[in-house]
Fold this sequence. Notes:
The protein is an alpha+beta fold. The protein has helices spanning about 5-35, 110-170, 175-225, 275, 325, and strands spanning about 50, 55, 60-70, 70-75, 75-80, 85-90, 100, 110, 235-240, 250, 255-260, 265-270, 285-290, 295-305, 315-320, 335-350, 360-365, 370, 375-380, 385, 395, 410, 420, 425-430.
Amino acid sequence: MPQHKPILRKVLLSIILIVALLGAGAFSIMVASWYAEGPPEEEILPPALVVSAMKLERGDVTESLRGFGLAQPVRRARAAAQVQGNILDIPERHRVGAFVERGTVLATIDPRPFEAELLRREAMLEEARENLVRTRAELEENREKRRFLEIERDIAEAELERAEQLFREGAISESSRDQARVQVQGVNQRLSDLNRQDAIQRAEETRLQASIRAREMEVALAENDLSYTTPAAPFDAFIEERNVNEGDLVSPGATLFVLIDGTRLELPIEIPASQARGIEEGAPALLHADYGSTPVATGTIERISPSIHPGSRTVSAYVMIERESTETGLTPGTFLSAQVEGRRFEDVYAIPRNAILDGAIYLVEDDRAARYEPEFFETLDDVALTRDDIPEGSILVMSGFERIYDGARLEVPDAEEIEEMPLELPVDISPDVVARDGVTGSGR
């Protein structure tokens, strides 16, 4: 047992030494921590979250819709041949791109066969008119003959009545009375013959009148055929296509030229049906050749389709571009975007959708984040609208949503660097755009 005492003493000394070293280390750490953090009674603040912000302003918001399409001529005409013949002449300047005024002769088809046909039909018409004049002269002559025969019949009947009286008195013979009767019968027979002749001539007059009307129509058709040998521009236009040359044989229906009206252009666009109710006919439209560029022309909504396309749920609207706009260089086929004023919302806040996180927004109050859950009544493409009683001039947090929470310390830009929310909101529209219902902000 005595031999074990030195070993036990060494173990006890080692344990006491280790405990003393651990106590000295703990005390040193506590002292160092106290000097590094300062007095324990002071608040320890987390670092501020740096965010971008936007100043909210209540006001009237106008939805600005944007549609895309190809400018088209309001009028396009196909100048086609309506008669068969050889092209005798085409003015040299009548080439693609040339401007022609209304009534300008585009080409000349050989007119000689049609001139001859017109002369033949005019001669037939003149002959029918002469026959009518002759028939009417005969009717007038018969009218005069009837007048004299009626006088002669009246005299003969008076003579017969006198002869009957004398015969009854025995003053004349029976043969003398019969001679008076024969005289009356002869006059009546000539009147009957004249009436039959008059009926025949009146039927001939009616036939000749119908023939003259038919001949006049034939002459008009021949004149039309002759006029078709010089096809002309139906309106002021540019030549888009030329398909014939001098010497070509053309048939009815063959396209000679294609003309387009360069004074008026039309831009068809598609608008989501839910937004179309805010557009009115006559509304102005700004036209852009490139998205976001300076407008190159102006136009107006001329008409809106009354029906909705079942597939895309859009409504067709047509923007009219007048002559003064085409002077800027716009031509048919130009790809344009049209910016049109749509619905108008009064006294609202427009909250960007990327500032909405789980249906809530964060405002800056005393350099801290304040969570609000406004009630949104309308959702446009990039914004949601609310009429909640948000303090005027509030600062809306626009970034930092991955670490933000209610009460978080914020660091925002200086007041002069904070932008105001615009009250004219651009919204792109195309056939595949469908209006959204509700707000599901992602807090991008």
